[in-house]
Write a structure and sequence with these properties.
Layout (H helix, E strand, L loop, with lengths): L6 H16 L9 E5 L5 H15 L6 H8 L2 E5 L6 H18 L5 E5 L6 H10 L14 E6 L6 H14 L5 E4 L6 H11 L13 E9 L8 H4 L3 H19 L8 H14 E2 L8 E6 L2 E3 L2 E3 L17 E8 L9 E6 L6 E8 L19 E7 L3 E9 L7 E9 H4 L7 H11 L8 H19 L6 E3 L7 H8 L9
Parallel strand pairs: 1-2, 3-4, 4-5, 6-12, 8-17
Antiparallel strand pairs: 6-13, 7-11, 8-11, 9-10, 11-12, 13-14, 14-15, 15-16
Helix pairs in contact: 1-2, 1-12, 5-6, 6-13, 9-10, 9-13, 10-13
Length: 487
C-alpha cells in the first residue's frame, strides 16, 4: 500500500481491511505491506494501524481478529517514490512473505498517492520485477489499484493509461471509484431492472429531468496542496457523478459481467451531449467567509495554503443531454460543492406533471410532480413522491413520501464501499471498476467546460457557507422553468 500514512488509508482503507478480516473474508495468509516516508519498524506500523482500526472500523474490535491481521503487517521505509533501494527492500519483503506466510506470490499494489506519482511508482514496480503479467489462469498475479483522479484531462488520462498498461495488463488495472461500491448505487440497477413499476416510465415520455447531487458540509479540510487546481468538477463530477449518470441512463445489460455492464455505461457516455452555450449550461462558485451551523467559517481563498487569486471552484453544476431514443430532450443536471447546506448524495428522477383537470383549486406548488429519489448517502435508501388527498372535507392535494431505508429494512449493516471494492480486487472481479475507455469519455464531456472556465479570468461566484451554492446555479435551472430539489 503506497500512501499508507495518508488520510484515505488511515480513515478508510485500513479499517476496511480489518472489517473484511473480522467477517472472515480474508485468508489467514493475507498481509499488508506499507510503503512510506516514515522510519517505522514493523511493530511501529502495527501500532499505528491498530489505532486507525480502533478509531475507524465499522465492526467491533476483536483481539483475535487483530492478532491474525497484525501477524501479516510489514513496513518498508522510503525516501520517496523514486527510491530504488526501498523498492529493492519491498521486493525482498514480498519474497519473505511468500515463504513465511504462504501468499503464493499474489500482490495487489494500492496507489493511494497523488496522481502525479502514479507513473513513477508503476515504472519502479516494473524495473524491479514486482509487476508481472499473468500468462495463464494458474499463475500468481500482480494487480494495481489506482485512486482517482485518473489524469486531469483527456490527454493526460490517455497518456497515464498507456504508462500503466505498459506495466500491467488491462485486466490487472483496477481504477477505484468508491461510489460504485456503495450498496445504494448497486441497488439502482435492482430498482430499475427488477421492478416492473419503473422501467416502462424510465424514458422521455414520462421523465421531465434528472438531478444528480453530491453536497458536502465540510470544506477542503487541509487539502490545499491537492485541491487547488483540481476543484469540484475534476474531483467529483468527472468520476462519481458521471458514473451515476451512466448507471441511471444505461440500457439493461445482458448480465452483470464486467464487459456487458461497462459496455452499456460507455454507450451512455458516448451519447452525452455538451450544450453549445457553455455559460448557460454551467455554474461555478467558491465558498466565502461566513457562519455555518453556528461556527465561523473561513472562506476558500482564506484557507491556509491558498493563493488569494485562485480561480479553483468549490462548487460546480452542469446541464447535459443524452442523445438516445430513450432520453432525447431530457436534461440531466449535475452539481457538487463544499460548504453546502447539508451532506447528501442523491439521484432525483423528476417525472412529468400529470394533467391537472380535476384539482384546479389546489396549489400546484404543493403537488403534481412525482419523483423517485435514490439516496446514496447518508440514510441510504429511496423515496417515491406521490400526490395524496389531505384529510378533511376539502379536496386538497399534497405531495407525500413513500420511503425505503436500508437501515430500518435490513438487519445486516451495509458494508463500507471500500470493503466490497478491495475484496473484488483480491478476487479479480472487475464489474464495479471503470475501464480506461469510460475514464477518457468522462474527460471528453468535462474538458470543454474546464477549458472554457480557464479561458476566463474572473473568479468563480462567491456563495455563503451553509447555502446551496451560488445564484448562478439556480439560474441554470430557472432558464428551463425548473428548480433544484431542496431538502
Amino acid at each position: 500500500m503506497f500512501g499508507v500514512t495518508g488520510d484515505l488509508a488511515r480513515k478508510k482503507l485500513l479499517p476496511a481491511l480489518y472489517d473484511l478480516a473480522n467477517r472472515r473474508l480474508l485468508p489467514d495468509s493475507f498481509c499488508v505491506v506499507g510503503f512510506g516516508r516514515r522510519d517505522w519498524s514493523d511493530a511501529d506500523f502495527a501500532a499505528e494501524v491498530e489505532s486507525y482500526v480502533r478509531a475507524g472500523a465499522r465492526t467491533p474490535f476483536n483481539a483475535e481478529t487483530w492478532q491474525r491481521l497484525a501477524a501479516g503487517l510489514r513496513f518498508v521505509p522510503a525516501q520517496g517514490f523514486d527510491d530504488d533501494d526501498a523498492f529493492a527492500r519491498l521486493g525482498q519483503t514480498l519474497v519473505e512473505l511468500e515463504d513465511s506466510r504462504g501468499t503464493g506470490g499474489n500482490h495487489a499494489f494500492y496507489l493511494s498517492i497523488p496522481p502525479n506519482s502514479f507513473e513513477t511508482v508503476c515504472e519502479k514496480l516494473s524495473a524491479h520485477g514486482l509487476a508481472r503479467r499473468s500468462q495463464s489462469a494458474v499463475d500468481s498475479w500482480s494487480r494495481v489499484i489506482i485512486e482517482k483522479p485518473f489524469g486531469h484531462d483527456e490527454a493526460s488520462a490517455h497518456e497515464l493509461n498507456q504508462v500503466v498498461e505498459s506495466v500491467f495488463a488491462s485486466n490487472e488495472v483496477f481504477r477505484i471509484d468508491h461510489y460504485l461500491g456503495k450498496e445504494t448505487v448497486q441497488n439502482l440497477l435492482a430498482l430499475r431492472f427488477a421492478n416492473r413499476l419503473f422501467e416502462p416510465l424510465w424514458n422521455n415520455q414520462h421523465v421531465d429531468h434528472v438531478q444528480i447531487t453530491m453536497a458536502e458540509e465540510i470544506g477542503i479540510e487541509g487539502r490545499a496542496s491537492y485541491y487547488d487546481g483540481v476543484g469540484a468538477a475534476r474531483d467529483v463530477i468527472q468520476n462519481h457523478l458521471l458514473q451515476l449518470l451512466a448507471l441511471t441512463a444505461m440500457e439493461e445489460p445482458i448480465n452483470f459481467d464486467a464487459d456487458h455492464l461497462r459496455r452499456e455505461k460507455e454507450k451512455v457516455l458516448e451519447a452525452v451531449q455538451v450544450p453549445e452555450d457553455l455559460d448557460a449550461a454551467s455554474a461555478r462558485g467558491q465558498y466565502s467567509s461566513g457562519e455555518q451551523n453556528g461556527q465561523s467559517i473561513a472562506g476558500f481563498l482564506n484557507e491556509e495554503g491558498f493563493d488569494p487569486e485562485s480561480i479553483t471552484e468549490t462548487f460546480a453544476a452542469f446541464k447535459l443531454g443524452v442523445r438516445t431514443r430513450r432520453w432525447a430532450g431530457v436534461p440531466f443536471y449535475l452539481r457538487s460543492g463544499k460548504r453546502l447546506a447539508t451532506r447528501v448524495t442523491e439521484i432525483a428522477v423528476m417525472f412529468r406533471r400529470a394533467p391537472n383537470l380535476l384539482f384546479t383549486s389546489a396549489d400546484e406548488d404543493q403537488f403534481g410532480q412525482n419523483a423517485l429519489i435514490i439516496r446514496i448517502q447518508p440514510n441510504e435508501g429511496a423515496t417515491l413522491r406521490l400526490a395524496s388527498k389531505v384529510p378533511g372535507t376539502q379536496m386538497d392535494i399534497r405531495d407525500v413520501d413513500m420511503d425505503f431505508s436500508y437501515g430500518s429494512t435490513f438487519t445486516e449493516q451495509s458494508p463500507e464501499a471500500y470493503e466490497r471494492l478491495i475484496l473484488d480486487v483480491l478476487l479479480g472481479d472487475p464489474p464495479l471498476f471503470p475501464r480506461h475507455r469510460e475514464v477518457e469519455l468522462s474527460w471528453q464531456i468535462l474538458d470543454p467546460f474546464l477549458k472554457h472556465w480557464e479561458s476566463q479570468t474572473q473568479q468563480p461566484m462567491p456563495y455563503a457557507p451553509g447555502s446551496w451554492g451560488p445564484e448562478s446555479s439556480n439560474d441554470l435551472l430557472r432558464r428551463d422553468g425548473r428548480q433544484w430539489r431542496l431538502r
